[in-house]
Design a protein that fits this description.
By secondary structure, this protein is of the alpha/beta class. The chain is built from 10 helices and 8 strands. Helix content is about 50%, strand content about 15%. β1, α1 and β2 form a beta-alpha-beta unit. α6 packs across α10 and α7 packs across α9.
Length: about 210
């Protein structure tokens, strides 16, 4: 059973989310924190497996706190919730080693599902957010670059939030081989991160991501 800590400066939201998580058979909500200082302290005191982290907290930045936590506890899984999400926030969340980013106005099912699927080393973005990122992309590429069949397979797996280790296992190849494909994808798509590569690939019609209805 995974232990979950909720960090949100809106007390009612935090307590309701914690209650919903605690009602699931495979989770135990171990507490709520309202700010960065509280959250950092409770992670040390309660040793949760997963943290659900708001971005804007009463005493600081949830993404900065996420980076601090994942540097100190590499096995800790952090799911980011935010009401205002743009490309910059997604990049910061990925750099902070968050496992997932979800809209704060999304449904509870998405949060519970993210808790169950979050894995260290992977980065999952809610389909609605990814589509928003694609719509606001302004790169000037005139057409899709030529990708090999294997690169397309890796790209499709990246779009689901898988990391290189998971993709390698899925495709039956060595991890360093998979990382080579990812590096080639970034170069061909002129992308600086896996998230940007997926966004450009969707915009260019190389892969498709469907939003939830």
């Amino acid at each position: 059973m995974d232990r979950v800590l909720v960090v949100d400066d809106h007390r009612v939201v935090a307590e309701l989310l914690a209650h919903a998580i605690h009602s699931q058979p495979d989770f135990e909500a171990v507490g709520c924190a309202r700010g960065v200082e509280d959250g950092l302290r409770l992670v040390e005191d309660l040793a949760p497996d997963i943290v659900v982290m708001d971005v804007r907290l009463e005493d600081g930045d949830g993404l900065a706190a996420t980076y601090e936590l994942t540097q100190k506890h590499p096995e800790l899984r952090v799911i980011i919730l935010s009401a205002n999400i743009d490309e910059g926030l997604l990049r910061r969340a990925a750099d902070a080693n968050a496992c997932a980013v979800l809209p704060k106005d999304g449904d509870l099912h998405s949060v519970i599902d993210a808790l169950r699927t979050a894995q260290c080393g992977s980065f999952t973005v809610h389909p609605r957010l990814l589509r928003r990122l694609v719509r606001t992309s302004h790169d000037r590429a005139v057409g899709p670059p030529p990708l090999t069949q294997r690169e397309l397979e890796v790209l499709r797996h990246l779009s689901t939030g898988m990391g290189a280790t998971q993709i390698a296992r899925e495709l039956g190849v060595f991890v360093h081989t998979c990382r080579g494909h990812v590096k080639s994808l970034l170069a061909k798509l002129d992308a600086h991160s896996q998230l940007e590569a997926v966004a450009k690939a969707v915009r260019l019609g190389l892969i498709h991501v469907f939003a939830e209805t």
